[in-house]
What we know:
It holds the Pfam family RVT_1. The chain has helices at residues 14-19, 21-38, 73-92, 109-125, 146-155, 160-170; strands spanning 47-54, 65-71, 174-177. The chain is mainly alpha-helical and 179 residues long.
Amino acid sequence: LPCHNSTSPDGIPYIFLNKTAETISAPLCHLFCRSLPTGSVPAFWKKAIIRPIHKKGSKMKPQNYRPISLTCALSKVMEKLIAYRLKEYFSVNHLFSPLQYGFLNDRSTTAVLLRTLQNWLSHVDQGGCIDCIYFDFRKAFDSVSLPKLFFKLTSCGIRGSLFHWIRDFLSGRSQFVRV
Length: 179
């Protein structure tokens, strides 16, 4: 969790969980073990405080701000546990594409750029030409189709209470802006 004094919508400062992790891990485990089998997420875990942070340029233009989403601290812990297990499942079952570089250990934008450059240089050395088109998928994560994501999860073997928990976690979310 982030190690700062911000308070999440559930009123729990992130730093509190960091400082008391060893002491509260057993009660949290009990709470999480009750949430997962039911496939339901507490409603307040799905609320977020949006803090606009100025990037650059005129402070009068909304596009010069980026939103920082402060989500419930307990939700964030559970989310990290689920994400860890999903990555482990996908890795063990070879469900990640070898071309997947984002959000995986030992892979990075630098690694994909080096691989691409190596492929291009090899192609040019063999007398070939390279044509390159770049796309900027702005706000790509904001436009993920939830029905398609849910279909993909089930086709990868994510079913039962875990699937229902993820679906509930991603559905019915609310947010408000705090300036």
